[in-house]
Amino acid sequence: MEKGDIRYFAAIDVGSFELELGIYEISAKTGIKRVDYIKHTIALGSDTYKYGKISYEMIDELCDVLSDFKKIMKSYRVDDYKAYATSAMREASNNMQVLDQIKVRAGIDITVISNSEQRFINYMSIDAKGELFEKYIRSGTAVADVGFGSMQLTLYDNGAIQSTQNLSLGVLRLREMVEEIDNITEKKHNVLTELIDNDLNTFKKIYLKDKKVKTIIGVGEPLMYMFKYMNRDVDDMIVNYEEFISLFDKIRDKSVEEIETILGVGKNYAKMIIPSVLIFQRIFDLFNAKEIWLPGTLFIDGIAAEYAKKSNIVNTGHDFRADIIASSKSLAKRYRGNSKHTTVVEKNALMIFDAIKSLSGLSERDRLLVQIAAILHNIGKFINMKNSDVATYNIISSSEIIGISHDERMLVAEMSNIDTEESIYNKRDIRLAKLSAILQMSNALDRSHKQKIKDYSLKLDDNKLILEIRYMGDLSLEMLSFNSHRDFFREIFGIEFVLKQIRTF
Question: What's the confidence (pLDDT) of residue 420?
Fold first, then answer.
């Protein structure tokens, strides 16, 4: 293979407990291959979760290590890199200063990503392992992504996300909670169990209900160390319940020093083993699962997979865009959104978006966001019929939609809370204005919620968008709503939107 066919990529994870650097060879022929891996333990989360900020000493160490990472990247002559920071940096009150210091001293741009983006990237790393991911998510699977700061628990069925929630069950956070308890292992064990069960039982009651979980997909480095003890030459393994409990029994009452010896890990990692394994043991018992699959992937593997997919070098098998839509529909279902009306508004929004795409200046990502907004635009009525727009905004802004960033989620929330065109102008955001105009017209076309518009044609002719509707009944309400928004649509896009009713006999 010619060197020019291979792209060298570096992925950096600024995590809550460690810094990781992965160097990857990416090509259309051979896929994604990690060729180097460097890790440095630095407990940023200990500072953030205890004191709310990252200390000067920790910043100094952070910059030194990342400067070394930059030298390694230069030695490989990487074509590109991505550096992401997660919960410890996200929750630190001084993260702006820390990121500036890293940029100035180490020459690396760090992007702080939301929890939903982080978990989505992790799922990409699992998908990159091959067909096993697609096989498992077809029936009763829970993805338990246990990090140092928090855990994401996602239910998959029929190949799509059914529900997902972030829980404060990160292993470092749990460890910090019981650190002050005296050195009685059983007492710490009981406190950890109660903390974990409290969140998992709530999740089970609200989201699992009568659903069956056959398989757990376990993501989390501390757990990987434990299972490598069983087979040190295998990163990817499937373990049944009996095997899991047998191994857990060997370490559950052991001291940190004994775990170090048994698993061959350093003291810092040994401290994280029990909380991590206990989380999965409780998931096993509470969900009555049969097996756990450990794909052995790291967050940096997901960063590389994301880059390869976005760069159109490697196409992974799973349709993650469908997961984002499924997650949005799951949220709408929770608040009993009008499914028939919502389906029509979603269809209308995509129809209008596609018709004016060449003149709109909007991207495929914008298409996805207006689709999400259409799905969620009326969920606030479940909370408050009178002020449903505000309620919708509050639900979306405080919820989690896997796969989109915090800023994107807030844009979707803003689209659903537009009272007047004047309020859009006050935002001084042309992207919001464009997407809101599309959503307004999409909703107007089913203002009666009776789905009258079924037989139609839509075409763009010069700067005129013509919608011809073949319908024998009364469209007065739709016409009234359409006309109230068409001037704003024309001002934003420079396109005249015309609605014509054609009565056929």
Answer: 58
Instruction: Report d(CA 271, CA 251) in Å as an integer.
Output: 12
Q: Do residues 152 and 143 lie in contact, with contact meaning Cβ atoms separated by under 8 Å?
A: yes
* Structure token digits, residue 322: 């469908």
Query: Is 0.70 surpassed by the pTM of this model?
Result: yes
* DSSP β-bridge partners for residue 34: 24
Of residues 16, 295, 270, the one with CA closest to residue 144: 295
Mean pLDDT by 10 residues, the chain (505 residues): 74 92 92 93 84 91 96 96 93 93 96 88 85 85 86 87 85 78 70 90 85 88 69 68 85 82 79 85 89 89 91 78 88 82 94 94 95 93 82 89 88 80 70 93 92 89 91 91 92 93 76
Q: What gap in Å lies between CA 261 and CA 91, rounded to an integer?
A: 34
161-166 long-range Cβ contacts below 8 angstroms, 24+ apart: 161/323, 161/326, 161/327, 161/330, 161/402, 162/207, 162/211, 162/326, 162/330, 163/207, 163/330, 164/119, 164/327, 164/330, 164/400, 164/402, 165/203, 165/207, 165/400, 166/115, 166/116, 166/119, 166/400
CB atoms within 10 A of CB 404: 23
Whole-angstrom Cα distance, residue 92 to residue 52?
A: 5
Task: Give the whole-angstrom CA distance, residue 102 versus residue 82.
Answer: 14
Sign of the torsion angle spanned by Cα atoms 86, 89, 90, 95: negative
β partners of residue 37: 22
Dihedral sign of CA atoms 213, 297, 165, 303 in order: negative
H/E run at residue 84 = strand 80-85
Per-residue tokens: 281: 């043991």
Coil, strand or helix at 371:
helix
Q: Which residue do the tokens 């018992």 mark?
A: 285
Q: How many CB atoms lie within 10 A of CB 267?
A: 11
CA angle 142, 124, 409 (to 5 degrees): 85
The residues that bridge with 156 in the sheet, in sequence order, are: 141, 161
Q: How far is CA 31 from the centre of its chain?
A: 23
Helix axes 476-493, 339-360, angle to 10 degrees: 30
For residue 198 the two structure tokens come to: 């409290």
Structure tokens at 135: 């096989």
The answer for residues whose C-beta is within 8 angstroms of residue 491's C-beta and 6 or more apart is none
CB 282 within 8 A of CB 216: no
